[in-house]
Amino acid sequence: MGASRSLQRSSPMRLLIALIGLLLFLWWMIQPPSTSSSSSALNINLPDISSATPTAALHPPKKAPPILHITMNNLSATAHPLRNQERLLILTPLARFYDEYWQNLLKLDYPRHLIELGFIVPKTHGGNTAIAGLQEALRRVQNGSKKHRFSKVTILRQDFDTPIGQTERERHALKAQKDRRAAMARARNSLLFTTLDPGIAWVLWLDSDIVESPPSLFQDLAMHNKPVIVPNCFQRYRENGAWKERPYDFNSWQDSETAQNLGRTMKEDDILLEGYAELPTYRALMAYQRDEKGDKHTEMLLDGVGGTALLVKAEIHRDGAMFPTFPFYHLIETEGFAKMVRRLGHQPYGLPNYLVYHYNE
Fold first, then answer.
1. What is the mean pLDDT of each run of 10 residues along the chain (361 residues)?
2. Are 281 and 331 in contact (CB under 8 A)?
3. Mapping DSSP to helix (H, G, I), strand (E, B) and coil, where does residue 13 land?
4. Which of 13, 19, 205, 273 is least surrounded, with the fewest CB atoms within 10 Å of its CB?
């Protein structure tokens, strides 16, 4: 009876089953855990860092990106930009898209492979319309022959609201100027800081309502080789069936003792503005210095500048000259920019006899 139980306990079938069970157990023990179970455990135990760490930092590229070496001392902005193949950045705050502006831009005769464009569009219904018109115009050019394409185009959408309406009357009301000009300065700075790369030699600020200028606008301004220079901005209009023209931009001026004394009596956050009877500054406005028979390259020193067609050597912006969004010596936006340029040791200039024309609403 005892021998029979011993034979049952050690039968070949039971030994085989036990061996297979042992091998399965050992196989299970030595297998690595599955990816899904591992990830689940890590996600439970580790803090969520996705909001604090850029995705690129968590997933390094398989191939290291190139390292650029740029010698800024070799960058030139001279009186002969075409000869030296100097790159131009044209920047436009775009509240409305005028086809006349675009056609005028296309007529500029500087080689397009040396031109980059930058636009910033407000978060408004009008901005939606403007960006649609701009994109369609760009599509036709950038999908055309390589010779006619611009080197680079950047379109920004503002991340802040426009404080006032966009009709001409609303834009030019005195009570709206501080908020309006501050928002314009903010938009200009956003556009500038985003698009100014190390290879740019010149920056041309060209408003979206400049609809007529000489095709050689950039070269004509650059030939003066000034750190900051601005032409005179006029406007064509019809009166009694005849075309006439009148000064439009009053932000380019030479300062006056009257204006300086007025500034001394103002509160710290007040701003001085031109073209308003409530603020008689008696400055010498470039708009009224035009000599119809005079040389179009006649220069005048300026203390304030407008931004309708403003050429700046890129090194001036890199020095720190930006558009104040706050009262800077009682000046703001482009006029504050001119003041900042002078505080940095540079001199703005104007060309009273050289005209560009503003859209007539």
1. 48 73 71 45 39 57 82 91 98 97 98 98 93 97 95 94 64 78 96 97 98 98 98 95 94 95 92 83 96 97 98 97 96 97 98 97 78
2. no
3. helix
4. 13
Q: What is the CATH number of the domain that holds 159?
A: 3.90.550.10
Please report whether residue 295 resides in a domain: yes
Residue at 137 is within a domain: yes
The residues pairing with 156 across neighbouring beta strands, listed in sequence order, are: 120
What is the total count of domains within the chain? 1
Burial classification of residue 259, based on how many CB atoms lie within 10 Å of its CB (0-12 exposed, 13-18 middle, 19 or more buried): buried
| Phi and psi based region of residue 225 (left: phi greater than 0; alpha: psi -120 to 50; beta: remaining) | left
Spatial distance between the Cα atoms of 132 and 298, rounded to a whole number of angstroms = 40
Which of 247, 271, 268, 260 lies closest to 303, judged by CA? 260
User: Is 18 domain-assigned?
Assistant: no
C-alpha span between 251 and 259 (Å, rounded): 14
**Domain interval for residue 282:** 78-358
**Count of H-run helices and E-run strands, the chain:** 12, 12
β-strand partners of 202: 88, 313
Taking CA atoms, 340 is separated from 281, 322, 336, 343, in Å, by 20, 8, 6, 5
Query: Is residue 185 included in any domain, yes or no?
Result: yes
Distance of alpha carbon 24 from alpha carbon 358, whole angstroms:
86
Distances (CA, A) of 86 to 69, 106, 168: 18, 19, 36
Separation of alpha carbons 99 and 317, rounded Å: 29
